[in-house]
Amino acid sequence: MALYDPERPPSPRRVVVTGLGVISNVGIGRDAFRDAMREGRCVVSPITAFDTAGYPYAHATEVQDLGEAAEDYAALAASYGRSACFAVLAARQAIADTGIGAAALGGLDVGVMLGTTNGESQVIDGIVRRWAADGAEAIPTADWNNAQAHRIAEAVSEELDLTGDSVTLATACAAGNYAIGHAADVIAAGEADMMLCGGVDSVCRKTYSGFFRLNAVTPDRCRPFDADRSGILTGEGAAVLALESLDHALARGARIYAEVLSYATNCDAHHMVAPHRDSIARCIRAAHARAGISPDQVTFISAHGTGTRTNDVVEVGAIRDVFGEATPPTISIKSMIGHTMGAASAMSAIAGILGMENDFIPPTVNFRRADPECPIDCVPNVARLARTSIFENHGFAFGGNNAILLMRNGREVTA
Amino acid sequence: MSAVRHAGRGPAAPVAIRRIGVVSPLGTGFGAFGAALALHARSVPTLPDDPSLPRRAAHLVDVDGAKHLGAKGLAALNRMSQMSMIACGEALDGERDAPVGVVLGTAGGSFRSITDFVRSTYSGPAPHMISPMQFPNTVMNCAAAQCAIRYGLTGVNSTVCAGDLSTLAALAYAVRMLRAGHGDRIVAGGVEEYCDFTAWSHAANADAEAPMGEGAALFALGGGGDDALGELLGVAQRRVGNGEAAGARRGALVRELLDDAGIAPDRVAWRMGSETADGEVGAREQDAVAAAGIDAGVADLSGLATAAVGRTYAASFGFQLAAALAVAPEGVGVLTASGPLNQFGGALVRIPARTRN
Predict the structure, then answer these.
(1) Residue in B145, B162, B179 closest to A167 by CB
(2) Is A162 on the interface with B (CB under 8 A)?
(3) pLDDT tens, A323-346?
(4) What's the pTM value of the predicted model, to 2 decimals?
(5) Considering B206, B222, B238, which residue would you say is the last residue of a domain?
(6) Which of 3.40.47.10, 1.10.3660.10, 1.10.10.10, 3.10.20.740 is the CATH number of A15-251?
(7) CA distance A172 to A404
(8) What ipTM goes with this model?
(9) B108: nearest CB among A9, A148, A212
(10) Per-residue pLDDT tens for B298-340?
């Protein structure tokens, strides 16, 4: 028996986004993040997460101002690592945003699926330092346990007292899209009433050192698609989306931000670090096919757009392979929030959703000079007012893990 | 518990388990693993002679990368990737350059590579004067990606972390991807690597007395063919919480697995808990199976994998399933597994009639 018959899809359930939560360097919470995306806010600061002695330069897009969430963060930090704290804060926002009260939430089957690149990398760094100084036996059991990647999703389940599936996806810098896409599969399959999904990461010494060694960290600002680009800024934060079925959302009169039209994922099977143009193009085409749309229906793309020459040229090439001359506006919010690793594509998903809802396309800031190798409209420096219908969200990762997500504007979602 | 699951649809389609790849303390290959289990043979745990490691016996794998993967490029591959690749190769059985997927369960990638790399930022002349070749080894999806690169697998490629239930969660992920049409063949399973970090990490927790183990177990899922070793009828995990409600949720999960597959409780011929019922975890799992209406007298294979290869944490459900496929009687069986953080999961498996040599 065939497992899957395209003529008879396994479930007619459509999946919608009904809650958003964001912890970012440019704003805490949905509204602050929306305003930052519209204003093109970019915040870069000296690194405080680890000792930066010995690096030629050390700046990043750290979350340094938690605002009203600072107290809650401090309370959580007594039990969890930084990534789990960010995830819990963003998840609480997302649940509050759905308008579901605590009583109703307790009656629902809610799962958690969060993507990450580094997991609790700051906890691991702390263990390594303590180990060297005092020996392994001096390390608290809680630190060993917090170092496990699944603690991130687990923390959200625990703090919100949820009893669904609880999984952390470690597909590196595409993990946010992986998590959102798979959570949508869970809803479509009827395995949960609601999923909290997205991505999270923390700035850490390991990743900063690694990208620095690859000459991929810019001493400047992050300038995706710019002829003078010189690399990434490592960033951090969390982006969590609440997903439920369209029927469930309509029945409770929920605000519908967007519909998850489709996602596709594949693997380059080519190189651990270098992206692959043909493979990315295949992934984009697969996402279009699963959604049943043609390229001309995509109104803008939120690119992986790291601001390295390798990524930008390969990604724009793949986009043009699929879209031809009629390539839609293609932006990179990494110009504003840096490369938030496992959170990146989830941040990008929320930026795109808020842009669709509020009739703007977020800009690619820090843009000065067009790169002839990247012939696209990157919405330079200033957000564009535009009514948009479908946006395409890109996430690529080390290991050749690609994931493409397609979302429809919530105002155009009809039963 | 939700009533939405599979509402209005018939039983979910079974997923064929076509082949198995195993790298374990019992040797390389599912054959070596299965033969040892059939003979009730166990790997012998050894106490590490390195004074920097905790005094806890461990079942270790002799990873012969050069023999199974060839010497070329081996130096760039960490031990976790090598174990995964060898097991993946066996599960693929010669298949190459195809849109096959890889879904790997792990506690968080190679803690050995990650901590060695972080240490190197402190020990060198400057924190960024480190080995660029080792950087990809520190990314948690490295082993799954290396499997894809080695065998040319361009399908779904994912890395799933759910603590001790990582392999179970990886199988659930893979089954969902197959049923949602993201591919028609996926090699899914899990890997655990013994190293100083994992040894101390697990020694810090209460179960430090039982020997640790390590290895990889991967299953070629999907596709057709009459030669399947078994069928995965369903697999699921959830956070069940504490107390009485947790007991009810565990029973409900097993019941849901049966309902989704359209299997009546009296059709279950055997069960396999992660531990024997004389301990707390095993007793809880036994209760969950009973609560789902399964007869207490069915064949009980609980604890078999742990006895044979030790506690393998993120890979444990892989060895549990491999053990079931090696020695379980014909018919439908239920596997259960528990994680330390109120996690519970299970799978429903059908073993075909087979001739034993």
Answers:
(1) B162
(2) yes
(3) 999 999 999 999 999 999 999 999
(4) 0.97
(5) B222
(6) 3.40.47.10
(7) 14
(8) 0.97
(9) A148
(10) 999 999 999 999 999 999 999 999 999 999 999 999 999 998 7
